[in-house]
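Comment thread on ticket #2218

A.B. wrote:
> Attaching the input chain for the structure job we discussed in standup.
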Amino acid sequence: MAPQKSTRDGSTGVQSLQRAFELLEHLADTGGEASLSELASTSGLPMPTIHRLIRTLVALGYVRQNTNRRYALGARLIRLGENASLQFGSWARPLLTELVDEVGETANLAVLERDEVVYVAQVPSRHSMRMFTEVGRRLLPHGTGVGKAILSVLPPEQTRALLARTGMPAYTEHTFTEPDTLLRHLATVAKQGYALDESEQELGVRCVAVPIDGAPTPAAVSVSGPEGRLTKEAVSRIAPVVQRIARDLSAQLGTDAASA
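C.D. wrote:
> Ran it. Output below, let me know if you need it in another format.
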């Protein structure tokens, strides 16, 4: 058998690995399920290449074929994703602690996973009355500060598709429940650089959230507290601090990537 030729990106094996991960990311971008023709359209790869890679991913359990002959992310990815999220949270804890020390309220880190925001780390406030969100808790993004911060940096068509898949149930009377209204709000969030949760997830709670640029998966950092302490005047002081911590997290991610 003749040896396979190298490519511009290195060995053929490395290129296949890169393409396999790209297919997994395309599946994730479509909400976790797509047909082969949809994958060909979004990836630009030849159909024979997609067939070969998908067969391998299915055999390994990272992709499954549904009864409708569409392909979806496989269960074997769950363990990898959950462990990676927890490691990400552990790595970020020192900066979350710095955030709590400076603003005095609970700091959170959340990521977007399978159309939901998942809280992967939290450092609680030292106040006796404080906000608490269990690490690992999953919520729909339209009703949370971290979720809106993440959605504000996604392409609008991707956000609209996500909202169509999840629906927009009301957590409180203040929750956004209409896609067009939320998308207009997200444009404002993107312009000002942070999102506010104004009792949209839980009555009496305010949250300031900022997206993290360059995170391995869409992510945001936030500060949350009771409205009585986290007043609108306090927000004007706290938001720049949360933005600085988000930049520090992004810079550390860039440093780690460069040294890998």
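A.B. wrote:
> Thanks. Noting for the ticket: Residues 1-10 have pLDDT under 50 and may be disordered.
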